[in-house]
Structure formats: structure tokens, C-alpha cells
User: What shape does this take?
Amino acid sequence: MNSAIEAQLSLSADFPSPPGVATHIIALARDPEVDMPKVAMAISLDSALTMKILRIANSPLYAQRRRIETLRQALVVLGLNATLTLALSFSLVKSLRGGKFNGLDYSLYWRRSLLAGTAARALADAMHQPRAEEYFLAGLLQDVGMLALDRVMPEIYRGDGSASNGAHTAIQQHERKILATDHAAIGARAMRTWKLPEFLCRAIGNSHAIDLGGTPDPALMLDRCVALSGPIADLFLSESTPRPIAETALAVERGVGLDRIAFGQILATIGSIIPETEAIFDARLLGAQNAESLLDQARDVLMLRGRQVMRDVDQFKAAAASAGPRETREPGRTGGIGRDVLAGVQDRPHLEQFLALEFEGCLRQGAPLSLAFGDLDQFKRINDSFGQQAGDRILQKVARVLRENTRESDLIAGCGGEKFVVVLPATDAGTARRICERIVLALNQSPHDGGTSPARVTISVGCATHDAGAPFASVDAFVTAADRALQTARSLGRNRTVCFDPQSTQAMARA
Assistant: This one.
């Protein structure tokens, strides 16, 4: 970095020092003998800070059944560490927002900072990390170096250059081109002068530098979550369509091991927290319409309508495009119905790839996986008696019933002729049974198609669940279990759901 600029940053009187309350809180956080009375006394010196602590203790984040009326009660609910971290967040924001600004888009800066803090906390909660408030604070302060640069070099964020209001990566590249460093490194240095804990300074400094590939190091989980929180915040702030939701989901999966379903839940959590964050920090983050637009797009992208885009976006899309439509009928049968006719029903190669990836990831994420095999009862007889067109209409009706009675997160695939498969991610045995029974009932109650076939179509379903309590040794064992359950449903008279016996599952897992 230019030595003159470095000297300016070190000596700048414009960049605020932490206020007295924040300084006291930092000192308390370093005191191994700190106790509740000391913390309560420090916070009570600032009435606005006291009200914010009370408000957050009563917020949905902590889900208290009775209202918290006193600061001492709030400390009991939040705990000492969380209270100190939250109090520090509130007081630092108050101090930093009070300064002047030059070329920086001040409103956008604070909206992104608060959204990034919220995203870092949501990631921590999803991964069951302790001290989620520290994730919030690190996410909130990750771009504080931009405030320092804006005061020392007013021109750096001015004008119509790529860094004025552009993408955050463009801002970082603009800084590096001019300074040979970026605001993350500068922010970490500033926070060290404030004597913030080193783990927070490190996370701020790594917010644009940490490698999100490879096996996550538990010691760097805070750093990874902070590095991911900025791109997640940008999803909420973006006004472009489509947003890079799939790419961000893939970065989250590679960075911290949370799959696309968990990522969709994180986006929904952030959306639900935004009103409370706005109220506590007295800031307008984004309109409800923008948040709703993001969540609508996320449902389309993350809930598996694109099936192949989540694990490796480019590879899966290229494979699907080059393969073209495949038929879902058995090989050799003429006039088979393709995916263009059975809309929403995937082919067998996509099924096998998707199932293998889900099987590999479900226990690693602590989530169950269920698999259902469905076989149309007496379909061959109906098809032979009334002809292929009648059979095609039946298959179309069944595909429609399956789509209407499963969730967007479920994958439906044709498996040759009258057989269908449904993969149910993050679904336990009880939920899977209810979904399968709903399919059987819906097909029973669906109207006749008319045409030449007077037959009412029914379906037999077999289901198996792979989870920590009853894991399968392999995908093949899992598939065999679901198929055995289907055979049992047939032998019991068809038109029913049978779930694989968990005791048999455990026996197979040990085999």
C-alpha cells in the first residue's frame, strides 16, 4: 500500500474512535472475572442501548414465553457473552453512522452491512454454532475499512467508475488497483486499534481473502460465514433478474457444507428477521416486495425445479443440454412419452445422479432422505386392452397427480413404463408416509380421463428412509429397501402404501 495513504489512515482524525460505552464493553469482554452486575451497570449508562437490549431479548430470535421487563432479566436470557457482543454492535453502529461521508453511497453501505450481519448470524444458527452474536458483529463490521478509506481518500468511491455503486467485487478490485490492498485489510487494522478481539479482526481481514474450497476448518468457521455473508446480502439488494442464487448456494455448500435446501431456509430466515433488524437499528434495509421477489426466485432455483444446477451448476446444465430430452418409457417400446410430455418428471440418468448426491450428503448434513417407488396397478392390462393412447393419458394423469401432491423440493422421475420414483430430501419416515398416502388417495379420487379407457387407475407405493437412526450401507441397499416395500404393497392387495421396516433397515446397514 502507498506509504502516504497508510500514514493518512493511521493518523486520520475523521475516523471515529469507539465511544466510551463501547470501550468499556470491550474491556469487560476481556475481563475473565466479569459478572452480570458489572455488565448491567455499563449498559444502563446508555438508556438507548438498554432499550435495544430489552427489545432484542423479547424478539423472535430468543422466543421467550414471557415478556422481559428488566435489564437483569435480559442478561439472564441472552447470557453474558451475547449481551456484551450485542451491546458492542449497537454502540459501534451508533458511532460509525454518526460520521461524515464523501463519495461512498452511505445508505447502500449500511443496508449491506446490516444484511451481511444478519446473514452471518443465520449461517451460524443453521450450523448450530455457539456465540451467533459474534458472527453478526463480524459480518456487520466486515466493510468498516470502506468508511476509513472514504474519509482519507474521498475520490476513491466518487464518480461513475466501477467502484462507485457497483458490485462489491468491483469495489475490491478498484481498491487493489489503486492501493495494492483492500478495505478488508484496512478494516482489520482499524479494529485492532480499537482493541477488538483478534478473532473478529481476523474474520474482517479474511472477508474477501479466505479460500472457500476444501474441507471446512472448524477454527475458521466464523471467517467462512463472514466471507459468505456479503454475497448473500447482495442477493437481497440486487434488483437484477435473475439473481445469482444458484452460484451463491453452491459457494455456501462448498464453503460451510450446507446444502441448497438449508440455504433456502437461511434465505427465508433472513427475510423473517429483516423487520426486527430494521426496528432495532432504525434503518430501512429493503422493501417487502424486493425480499418477496428474492424468495420467489429462490423457491424456483433452490427447490429443485432445475434439479441439476445445485451441486455443480455449469456441469449439470451442460450435461442436460447435450443429452437432450430422454424418454421415460422402457427401451424398445415405440411411441414412448418423453420429458416434454411428462412435464416435471425427470429421466432415469438424472434420478440416479441426484439420488447418489443426496445419499452422500444427507447424513453429513444431519438430515434424513426418503425414497418412494410407485407402480401403477394393472397398467399393462389397461394399456393392452385400450391401446397406447389410453396408456399415455393415464401416465400423464399420474404425473400430474404426483406433481400436485409432492413438494417443490421433491424430485419425480419416470423409471420405465408404469413405474415412478419420488426422492424426498430432508424428509423423515413419518412425513414420507403421509406424502405417499396422499398420492395413493389422490389417484383414487382423480376423475376418469374419458376417451376409450373406463378404468380407474390406482397405484402401489413402497417407501424407505435413510437417516442416522436407520442408515443404509449404500445407495443400492436403499433402493432395494424401497423396492421390497413396493413388492410388499403389491402382495397385500395393491392400492396402498407400505414403508420399509426400520429393523430390517438396520440389519441391512450392518450387513
